[in-house]
Amino acid sequence: MPAANYLSAAALSQKTAAALNCLETGETDKLIILENDAPKAVLLSFDAYEALEEELEDLRLAALAFARLKTFKPEEAVSHEKMIEKLSR
Questions:
Q1: 83: which residues sit within 8 A by CB, 6+ positions away?
Q2: Is the pLDDT at 2 greater than 80, yes or no?
Q3: In the structure, what pLDDT confidence band is assigned to residue 1 with cuts at 50, 70 and 90?
Q4: Are strands 30-35 and 38-44 parallel, antiparallel or unpaired?
């Protein structure tokens, strides 16, 4: 595998097992697949993909929380105690 994280599509087709092994063992965290010397795709290990998805979801939730804070009205909020009382019936 090349030292850089770039791999041609032709080389990937010939060295699929080696490329996957590099990702699985952590030798590289991503492979950028080139076609005609232009980036066409990124290949990630499943662990790296899951981490990326989790981080994206965390960012979505943070953005939603910040957006809700802008319109939050404390006088209209239901207290924790009232919610516990309501849900324990």
A1: none
A2: no
A3: very low
A4: antiparallel
Residue whose entry in the numeric block shows the structure tokens 């010939």 = 14
- pLDDT, averaged across the chain: 91
Q: What's the pTM?
A: 0.66
What's the per-residue H, E or C state across the chain? CCCCCEEEHHHHHHCHHHHHHHHHHCCCCEEEEEECCEEEEEEECHHHHHHHHHHHHHHHHHHHHHHHHHHCCHHHCCCHHHHHHHHCC
- Domain residue ranges of the chain, discontinuous segments joined by +: 6-44, 47-87
